[in-house]
Q: What sequence folds into this?
């Protein structure tokens, strides 16, 4: 049982390991790592080395990525006299890189180049070398050994020219150097380069001196002199020195500015010089290294002159010595510039100013806003005062007005009633508001009243209505209520306002008057009828009898009595004439035709008689008139026709008149019109006496309406409408009973 | 065949009496009533040939009586005897179904000829014009009434 379990596990491991192993096997075949060794002549903490190392390393990393295997070694050669540590370093490197053969070696600065010249072949045979530094550093290089490099020139002359440019009043320059072989080499280089300038300035070489003496010397040198430092690895006392530290001490003590051609001295107290820009040179070196790594073969000494030498000054020293920046040649790199307040705090200042501007704008806006608001508030307050005054004035007027006033909102609900209203009903304002006002209206009127109000309200139309309103003493009083829509300042609908007056007394007077009118008319008609009947039924019958008797007598007379016969004939005619006259009077008093022949015959007859009598044309037509009209309606319409036609003939000046009777299912219409001069109906009501008034009264008695339409020189039309249905129904009902 | 049966209807006792005297020689006066309602009842009950009818009567007037008799299909022929010397009345009378129209002022001369004409199937209208009605020109009536009026007028003039 154990064997199969073990076998299964093995299979599982194999399944997991196999893909990983195959992946691991493939990796070396892809791209081998490039080992790059950078050999620095100086210390690792030298700022220039730090910068150079960073640039070269990052440039190579960018291109090669994980295929770069970068190493840096620092010979720190300056602290040791030449040859002193070289064998130790040689052993160190040999052991260290026995298993790691570099693809390329970058030799940075003079000591590293010298080291490679001495031990390169032995330690790293066939490994290409890229040099970093100055052209003069390859002076001893065996031309058969391949080396590449972008090397700069040591600008001792350029540095002095910069000094003379910045300080044109310079009369003398002190060139400082030590006693070591490299110090001497720098001095000899200076002598070569400065030959041309000896005419312009006095050149004094200071070399065989101790550092202490040098410090004392520079502290006392007169104006018009500048110091140019070359190199001092060892002073006259045999002290090994670090040149950059020497520069620091000289520059600190010197009464005059110090210049130097090396980039490492910048920041140590020198004004500056024409120096190698270590960043630019590092970029050039890195590019060269990449080319070598990519397989470019180096043939002999493949050196190109670097373009990395630039005038470079220390801004602080310019300030210290009062040297104007305007004198700097174009392209001068100014280092250590202390940022100005503006530079240091530019963004703070910008932010601050922006903030201030913003705040100022905000404050201005707020102030403006406040001013505007105050103005608006003041205007509003003024408007409110005006509105309040207006409101108070309105209420004062409303409360002293001899009418009841109400107001409602857009929702039809009452929002206000005046004091007279409250006095009338003896109720509180709260009770009357909303729909409370309806509570006091007579039960028989409230529905019609509310309907009139809401219908007019929905159409935004004025309305007039009458209803009974309960007074404080419980008595219902008739009020006439007129309402109109009201609009606010923006011309938008705001509800209704209305006023009511107590018209009970007027209404009673009207009713009384109407009753009197009716009784007068009735009495008149009755009297006319009575007289007419007396005349017709009694007198006329008797006259008729007389006529008959005469006729009979005449018939019975002997034919011979011609005289008597003629006399009888005359008497008979006379009697007939009297009878006709009496009948005429009777007819005018009370139309028997209306009674016996109906409305149409009576009207037609009257029109004919009037036309004959006045010699005018009267066009009468009747249509759809029932022969069984109620007597009061017939009489009313006949009398109105009589009166209006008589008036028209008398006053209009017209020669032609129309009279029309027309029946509908529920009304009878009578129209009398002329094309005469017309009149003012309102004035005529007064001036023309009882005619028009009695017409109107008669029409109102049969619940009809009368309309007088008249225009001056435009004719007149009097239209009467009398409702029929109720009357006929009533009559039928009473007839049936 | 006996004398024609005549019914008199007038609210005036005197007129009724006088007419009765006038007609009784030639006609059988079967009844004499004083209002319209009685006239309608009597006309059918008494089976009158002729009804001498006044217009102005209390209750139903003569025009209404004529209309109702005509509507009821009564065979009694109606001759109006009235003081209304007016064409509107003549028109109304013939429209209501009358056969003759005699003015009271011409009763002695026109009534008997009128009744006789009617019995013969013709119509009769008294000639009038001495009274208040002077407006003959504008009269418009039903075609039948107009024709009767014209034929009789033409015959009598």
A:
């Amino acid at each position: 049982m154990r064997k199969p379990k073990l076998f299964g596990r093995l299979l599982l491991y194999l399944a997991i390991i196999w893909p990983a192993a195959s992946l691991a096997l493939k990796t070396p075949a892809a791209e081998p790592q490039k080992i790059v060794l950078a050999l620095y002549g100086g210390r690792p903490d030298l700022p220039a080395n730090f910068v150079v190392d960073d640039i070269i390393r990052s440039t190579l990393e960018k291109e090669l990525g994980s295929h770069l295997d970068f190493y840096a070694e620092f010979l720190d050669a300056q602290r040791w006299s030449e040859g002193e540590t070289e064998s130790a370093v040689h052993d160190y490197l040999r052991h260290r890189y026995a298993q790691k053969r570099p693809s390329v070696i970058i030799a940075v600065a003079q000591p590293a180049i010298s080291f490679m010249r001495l031990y390169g072949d032995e330690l790293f045979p066939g490994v290409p070398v890229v040099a970093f530094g100055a052209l003069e550093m390859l002076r001893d290089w065996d031309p058969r050994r391949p080396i590449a490099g972008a090397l700069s020139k040591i600008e001792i002359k350029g540095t002095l020219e910069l000094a003379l440019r910045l300080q044109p009043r310079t009369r003398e320059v002190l060139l400082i150097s030590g006693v070591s072989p490299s110090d001497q080499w720098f001095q000899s280089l200076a002598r070569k380069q400065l030959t041309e300038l000896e005419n312009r300035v006095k050149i004094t070489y200071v070399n065989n001196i101790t550092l202490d003496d040098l410090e004392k010397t520079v502290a006392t040198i007169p104006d018009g002199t500048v110091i140019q430092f070359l190199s001092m690895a060892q002073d006259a006392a045999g002290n090994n020195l670090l040149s950059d530290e020497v520069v620091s001490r000289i520059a600190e003590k010197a009464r005059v500015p110090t210049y130097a051609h090396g980039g490492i001295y910048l920041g140590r107290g020198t004004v500056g010089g024409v120096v190698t820009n270590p960043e630019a040179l590092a970029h050039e070196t890195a590019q060269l290294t990449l080319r070598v790594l990519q397989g470019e073969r180096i043939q002999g000494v493949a050196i190109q002159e670097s373009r990395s030498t630039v005038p470079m000054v220390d801004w602080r020293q310019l300030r210290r010595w009062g040297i104007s920046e305007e004198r700097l040649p174009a392209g001068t790199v100014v280092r250590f510039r202390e940022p100005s307040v503006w530079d240091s705090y530019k963004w703070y200042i910008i932010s601050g100013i922006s903030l201030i501007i913003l705040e100022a704008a905000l404050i201005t806006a707020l102030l403006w806003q406040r001013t505007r608001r105050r103005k608006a508030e003041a205007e509003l307050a003024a408007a409110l005062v005006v509105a309040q005054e207006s409101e108070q004035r309105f209420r004062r007027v409303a409360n002293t007005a001899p009418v009841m006033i109400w107001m409602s909102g857009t929702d039809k609900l009452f929002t206000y009633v005046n004091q007279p209203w409250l006095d009338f009903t003896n109720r509180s304002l709260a009770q009357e508001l909303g729909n409370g006002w309806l509570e006091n209206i007579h039960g028989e009127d409230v529905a019609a009243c509310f309907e009139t109000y809401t219908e007019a309200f929905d159409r935004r139309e004025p309305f007039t209505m009458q209803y009974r309103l309960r007074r404080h003493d419980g008595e219902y009083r008739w009020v006439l209520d007129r309402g109109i829509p009201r609009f606010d300042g923006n011309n938008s609908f705001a509800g209704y306002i209305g006023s009511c007056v107590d018209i009970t007394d007027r209404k009673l007077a009207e009713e009384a008057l109407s009753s009197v009118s009716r009784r007068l008319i009735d009495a008149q008609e009755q009297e006319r009828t009575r007289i007419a009947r007396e005349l017709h039924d009694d007198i006329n019958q008797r006259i008729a009898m007389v006529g008959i008797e005469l006729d009979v007598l005449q018939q019975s007379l002997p034919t011979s009595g011609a005289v008597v016969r003629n006399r009888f004939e005359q008497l008979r005619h006379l009697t007939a004439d009297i009878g006709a006259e009496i009948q005429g009077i009777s007819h005018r008093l009370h139309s028997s035709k209306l009674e016996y022949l109906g409305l149409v015959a009576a009207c037609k007859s009257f029109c004919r008689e009037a036309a004959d009598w006045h010699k005018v044309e009267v066009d009468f037509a009747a249509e759809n008139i029932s022969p069984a009209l109620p007597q009061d309606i017939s009489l009313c319409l006949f009398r109105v026709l009589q009166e209006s036609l008589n008036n028209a003939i008398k006053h209009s000046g017209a020669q032609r008149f129309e009279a029309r009777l027309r029946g509908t299912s529920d009304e009878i219409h009578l129209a009398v019109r002329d094309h005469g001069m017309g009149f003012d109906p309102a004035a005529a009501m007064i001036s023309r006496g009882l005619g028009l008034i009695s017409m109107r009264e008669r029409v109102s008695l049969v619940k009809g309406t009368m309309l007088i339409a008249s225009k001056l020189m435009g004719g007149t039309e009097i239209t009467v409408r009398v409702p029929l249905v109720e009357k006929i129904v009533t009559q039928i009902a009473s007839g049936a009973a | 065949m006996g004398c024609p049966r005549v019914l008199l209807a007038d609210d005036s006792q005197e007129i009724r009496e006088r007419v009765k005297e006038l007609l009784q020689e030639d006609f059988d006066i079967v009844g004499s009533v004083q209002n319209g309602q009685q006239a309608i009842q009597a006309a059918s009950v008494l089976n009158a040939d002729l009804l001498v009818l006044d217009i102005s009567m209390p209750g139903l007037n003569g025009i209404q009586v004529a209309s109702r008799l005509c509507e009821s299909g009564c065979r009694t022929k109606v001759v109006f005897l009235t003081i209304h010397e007016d064409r509107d009345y003549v028109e109304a009378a013939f429209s209501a179904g009358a056969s003759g129209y005699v003015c009271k002022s011409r009763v002695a001369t026109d009534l008997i000829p009128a009744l006789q004409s009617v019995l013969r199937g013709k119509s009769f209208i008294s000639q009038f014009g001495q009274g208040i009605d002077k407006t003959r020109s504008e009269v418009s009536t039903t075609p039948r009434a107009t024709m009767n009026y014209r034929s009789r007028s033409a015959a009598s003039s």
Q: What stands out?
A: The radius of gyration of chain A is 70 Å. Chain A touches chain B through 36 residues (CB under 8 Å). Residues 506-590 of chain A form one domain. Chain A has 22 helices and 23 strands.
